[in-house]
Design a protein that fits this description.
Length: 362
């Protein structure tokens, strides 16, 4: 199966649009013609020298599209179905069996290695050389992707596929952390650190949950302005000299829930300090260094390191779509579309804090 893909050839190289050859489908797999794919911060990890998924690789893990072929054991997905792709999981380990696929025993190897479980590559380039093409069980920065039945969520054909891709990871992580992992209750206070796609999805979800104090913290005023439009009741500039005092004043001495999307140790400490005793602090960013905590900061608090919002995409993606249709979860306001040929411009704008959620169209 020939496909056109954005191939990352080296940690410091731009993506190159190339023809690749995808291998044949296995019994539990699905071939998807990609209509759109969101860009998530995790997609830059293969640029980190020494990371477990080195180039050459096709990344992209927020794909949406149309099913073109299915393996002979697939029963829940049919050719022609419109689908949103999410993270992959095994379906049989203890956590998958308990409805917690984000904590699948094989989460890391299925999603972050970019390769088959046996370590081989799923695609070859024009010269016949291997290209890793199983990133998050999809590698959707391409015209076509191989997914599995488990990470393929069927959606209504009347829905616009071009906006649904980001529901598969970043938006799900933000909203799922609030509505799932942290289980924010009505009438409570929430502080969200970082107003990128994950943080703003969390702000919208906190409003859905009925939180009455929602504080967004970020360095960029234009993102804080958007946070206010999406449900934040207070905003705090992250580089203000009195961040802690502003957080305490807005929350009456401490929030019930804090949520860090930055991974920056100093920000995580601030988030924990802003959390009242009995409160919960959720973390989702890739940790940017060593995190040092003292017992006073942690006293009486729960710290959760959250994967994918702790939700099951087969349940939560339809829920987010319903909330969106109902006008309660306008995640499409975070999206800016780019043709796949402009993937390098999209990445640069995203890393510079410009576009919040780039969506690539093959
Ligand atoms: Zn599992
Ligand atoms: Zn992601």
């Amino acid at each position: 199966m020939k496909a056109t893909a954005a191939v990352l050839r080296g940690t410091d190289q731009p993506y190159a649009i190339e023809e690749i050859e995808l291998r044949d489908l296995r019994p539990n797999e699905v071939l998807v013609r990609i209509v759109a794919a969101g860009m998530c911060h995790t997609d830059v990890l293969p640029r980190v020298p020494g990371f477990i998924a080195p180039p050459p690789i096709v990344v992209g893990h927020e794909g949406s599209g149309v099913v073109e072929a299915i393996g002979n054991a697939v029963t829940k997905v049919a050719v022609g179905d419109h689908v949103v792709l999410s993270f992959d999981s095994c379906g049989v380990c203890a956590n998958c069996s308990a409805g917690q696929p984000a904590y699948c025993d094989t989460f890391i190897v299925r999603n972050l290695f970019g390769r088959e479980l046996d370590g081989s590559a799923a695609a070859t380039d024009a010269a016949g050389e291997p290209i890793a093409a199983r990133w998050f069980g999809q590698s959707s920065f391409a015209s076509h992707a191989i997914a599995t039945e488990r990470n393929t969520v069927v959606v209504d054909k009347a829905l616009p596929l071009e906006v649904l891709g980001p529901l598969g990871c970043g938006i799900q992580t933000g909203a799922g952390s609030i509505l799932g992992a942290l289980d924010v209750q009505p009438g409570t206070s929430v502080a969200v650190f970082g107003s990128g796609a994950v943080g703003l999805a969390a702000v919208m979800a906190a409003k859905v949950a009925g939180a009455t104090t929602i504080i967004a913290v970020d360095l960029q005023q234009h993102r804080l302005d958007l946070a206010l439009e999406l449900g934040a009741t207070h905003v705090v500039k992250g580089d203000a000299p009195d961040v802690a005092a502003q957080l305490a004043a807005a929350s009456g001495g401490g929030v019930q829930y804090s949520f860090d999307t930055t991974g920056i140790p100093a920000v995580i400490v601030t988030a924990l300090q802003a959390t009242r005793m009995t409160g919960k602090c959720g973390l989702v960013g890739v940790l940017q260094g060593n995190l040092e905590l003292d017992s006073n900061t942690m006293l009486g608090k729960t710290i959760l390191n959250i994967l994918e919002g702790s939700v099951d995409p087969q349940v939560f993606i339809p829920r987010m779509i319903e909330l969106w249709q109902d006008g309660q979860f306008p995640f499409d306001r975070l999206i800016e579309e780019f043709p796949m040929s402009q993937i390098n411009e999209a990445e640069q704008s995203s890393l510079a804090g410009g576009v919040i959620k780039p969506v690539l169209r093959p």
